[in-house]
Amino acid sequence: MTPSPAKTALGHIRVLDLSRVLAGPWCAQNLADLGADVIKVERPGTGDDTRSWGPPYLKDAAGADTLEAAYYLAANRNKRSITLDIASPEGQDIIRRLLPHCDVVLENYKVGQLKKYGLDYDSLRAIRPDLIYCSVTGFGQDGPYSHRAGYDFIVQGMGGFMSVTGERDGVPGGGPQKAGVAISDLMTGMYATIAILAALNHRERSGEGQRIDMALLDVQVAMMANMATNFLASGKPPVRWGNAHPNIVPYQTFAAADGHIIVAVGNDGQYRKFVVAGGRPELADDPRFSTNPERVRNRDILVPLLADMVAARSKQEWIDALEAAGVPCGPINRLDEVFANEQVQARGMEVVLPHPSGGEVHLPASPMKMSVTPPRHDMPPPTLGQHTVEVLGELLGMGEGEIDALRARGLV
């Protein structure tokens, strides 16, 4: 059945999601969390590429691996899955028949590929003039790179992120570093979500649909934020500082006896409290270290002394001591520690949903906290084609016999 629109912000919206992997599905999951009926269209037999991107895989009730990779589970909750061969004329016709029932089309095919199928924006808006059509690609719909395939890792490098991420050149481990998650993909999914919501709002006021052109490279350049404006203002590209700060010392990570902590000293008073808590008050009295400008000039002398001081105690001992002293600090948690954290638990950031396999799927919750229309967490990521009969029957009036005939021909 169609997800209930009750008490959701987007319960009146239906999204036809032709995207796969991460950026597009992340956007569609945001919309689904907010109540939209997201119909995920997948290839018969294989589905979204990420379904096989494991291990790890979801476990069934007996503890055996299912066919659902954890990667896929991360970006596909609250959706309905149908299988459809859109490369076939019959599949293309079904997409066109579904279109009047949908408000948004989301796709991440290569530039020009859907035009060959008659499923591009111009073709589909002829059927539904107020359609909102969002394309997600590596480099956008125009420009000299538009026909290149875009990958998050490559875009992190091309867009400047890796030039400011990683340890400094010349120190152990120095060199460019990508992020631990696919930030270009995820941020493109977030920007696409915002753009779709803005387009829906515009349509509500004007009745006018539009095309949205999202590119990973554009997003990566935009999210360089102050680093980008630092360069544009000065003409000098910023460099990598690892976990240190170019203008504040100490403002970095340190290895404690059993893990790492972050110390973010913002002024001279906090610095004194830090070294006093560590039993080294003389490091605050030393004129080489008494003020931040001097600490920056002498960081190569000071930081090893602070590192030795921190290494003498456990992570929790340091957190307790520095919080008591009013020194900004925090642990660097593994994910087991993250989900065991009392604040994370209090905020309900893990949800557990029953899965059609008979097991349970544990997922990070949506971080959007809304007093009237909170995000929903009622549908686990669907199995491949789980809702084909349901959706085609509900929206197009197809009977099971008609759908079985399509299935026999490999079209659904």
Structural class: alpha/beta
Mean pLDDT: 95
**What is the name of the CATH class of the largest domain?**
Alpha Beta
Helix content: 25-40%
The low-confidence parts are: none
Count of discrete structural domains:
2
Order the strands across the largest sheet as they lie in space: 5-2-1-6-7-8
Taking the alpha carbons of the first and last residues, their distance comes to 19 Å
CATH topology grouping of the largest domain: Rossmann fold
Number of DSSP E strands: 13
Radius of gyration: 26 Å
User: What overall geometry do the principal axes of the alpha carbons give?
Assistant: elongated
Sheet with the most strands, sense and barrel status: 6 strands, parallel
Strand content: 15-25%
Fourth-level CATH superfamily of the largest domain: Crotonobetainyl-coa:carnitine coa-transferase, domain 1
Total number of helices = 18
InterPro entries: CoA-transferase_III_domain (IPR050483), CoA-Trfase_fam_III (IPR003673), CoA-Trfase_III_dom3_sf (IPR044855), CoA-Trfase_III_dom_1_sf (IPR023606)
GO molecular function, one term: CoA-transferase activity
Pfam family, one: CoA_transf_3
Keywords: Transferase
List the helices and strands and how they pair.
Elements: E1 14-17, H1 23-33, E2 37-42, E3 57-59, E4 65-69, H2 70-73, E5 79-83, H3 89-98, E6 104-107, H4 113-116, H5 121-125, E7 132-137, H6 152-158, H7 183-206, E8 210-215, H8 216-222, H9 225-234, E9 251-256, E10 259-264, H10 268-277, H11 282-285, H12 292-297, H13 299-311, H14 315-325, E11 329-331, H15 335-340, H16 342-346, E12 350-354, E13 360-364, H17 388-396, H18 400-408
Parallel strand pairs: 1-2, 1-6, 2-5, 6-7, 7-8
Antiparallel strand pairs: 3-4, 9-10, 10-11, 12-13
